[in-house]
Amino acid sequence: MNEPLILTCAITGAETTRERQPALPITPVEQAIAAEEAVRAGASVIHLHVREDDGRPSQRLERFEESIRAIKARVPDVIIQISTGGAVGEPIENRARPLQLKPEMASLNVGTMNFGDDVFWNHPKEVRALAKKMSDAGVKPELEIYEAGMLEQVFRLKKEGVLEDPLNVQFVLGVPGGMSGDLRNLMHLVSLLPSGIHWGVAGIGRYQLPLALHAVILGGHVRVGLEDNIFYHKGVLAKSNAELVARVARVAGEVGRPVASCAEARAILGIRN
Ligand code: KMH
Ligand code: ZN
After folding, report:
1. Residue with CA closest to ligand 1 atom 6
2. 272: pLDDT confidence band, cut at 50, 70 and 90?
3. Position 2 in a domain
4. Ligand nearest to the CA of 98
5. Which in 21, 109, 176, 236 has the greatest CB count within 10 A?
6. Which residues surround ligand 2, an ion (CB under 5 A)?
7. How confident is the prediction for the chain on average, in pLDDT?
8. pLDDT-based confidence at 257, cuts 50/70/90?
9. How much distance in Å is there from the Cα of 229 to the middle of ligand 2?
C-alpha cells in the first residue's frame, strides 16, 4: 500500500471493435485525445496498439510513429508502452517493429497459450530475442502473465540474465485460454512473487473492476481500458477510457493510495531516462 498506484490505460487493443464499443479510439488523433483524457483521470502509462483507419490492427511503423507523436504532443510526460503482442497471428518480426522507435516501455509476452479460439504463439527463442532487443534499445519490458507457468518462465529468463531488475509483471486474467479473473488466481500469483518484483493486474471483461480494486488494496498496480473491457457496469458501455481510469483513481484516493505521477511511475518501473 506504500507505493503510489500506477494506472495503465490500454486504450485500443487489437480485438475490441467500434461496432461493439463506439468510444474506441482508432486514429492517431483519437488515440491522442483518449490518452490525454486518461492521463487527466490518473493514468501514467498508455499501453498502445495501433489500427489502420478502417479499424484493422496494425504493426506498421509509420502508424506507431504517428500515434506516438500525436499522444506526446498532448501529454508529453506520459509513458508510452508499445505492444509487441499485436494481434493473434501477427508474425514476430512485425510485432518487434515498433521497438525501432525506442519507446520507454513495451509489453513482452513470455509464453504461448490458447487465446479464445486462436493460439497466441510466443516461442521461447522469439521471447528471448525480443527481450534482448528491448534491453539493447533501453526499452523496459512489462511481462505479460496469463497463467502461472508463465511466471515460472519469467524466473527462468531472469536467471539466464535475459531480464534485468526491476521486473514488472502484469497479470492479465480472464482471457479464455489463460487463468480466469477469479480472485484466488490473483492471490496465488501474488503469493509466488519474490520481493522486489512490481506487479499489476489487468482483468478482462467483468473481472476488470474487482481485480483492480483488490490490487489497489494489495499494493499492486492496475491496468484498465477498452482493450480489456468495454463496459462500465454490466450491460452499460463505458463512455470512454478515461471513465474507467477515473473510477479506479477515485476509489484508490478514498483508501489512501494516491495515483502515481508519470515521474513516480518511471522511478518505480525502473525506466532509464
Ligand atoms: N492482442 C493480444 C493477442 C500485448 O499487447 O502485449 C495480445 C496483447 C498483449 O494484447
Ligand atoms: Zn495489448
Report:
1. 85
2. confident
3. no
4. 1
5. 109
6. 83
7. 97
8. very high
9. 12
Segments in the chain forming alpha helices (H): 28-41, 61-74, 92-96, 124-137, 148-160, 183-191, 208-218, 241-254, 262-269
**Stretch 242-266: mean pLDDT:** 98
SS3 92: helix
* Parent domain of 193: 7-269
Q: What is the pLDDT of residues 58-68, one digit of tens each?
A: 999 999 999 99
In a domain, 1, yes or no: no
For the entire predicted model, the pTM comes to 0.98
CB 121 within 8 A of CB 112: yes
pLDDT tier, 1 (very low <50, low <70, confident <90, very high otherwise): low
Question: Given ligand 1 and candidates 11, 49, 109, which is best to mutate, with the most ligand atoms within 8 Å of its CB?
Answer: 109
**CA 172 to ligand 1: nearest atom:** 9
CATH number where 110 lies: 3.20.20.70
With a Cβ cut-off of 6 Å, ligand 1 is lined by 13-15, 83-85, 87-88, 107, 109, 115, 120, 144
Q: Residue 211 half-sphere exposure, CB side, CA atoms within 13 Å? A: 32
Amino acid type, 211: L
Nearest CA residue ID for atom 4, ligand 1: 85
pLDDT per residue over 138-197, tens digit each? 999 999 999 999 999 999 999 999 999 999 999 999 999 999 999 999 999 999 999 999
**Is residue 145 situated within a structural domain?**
yes
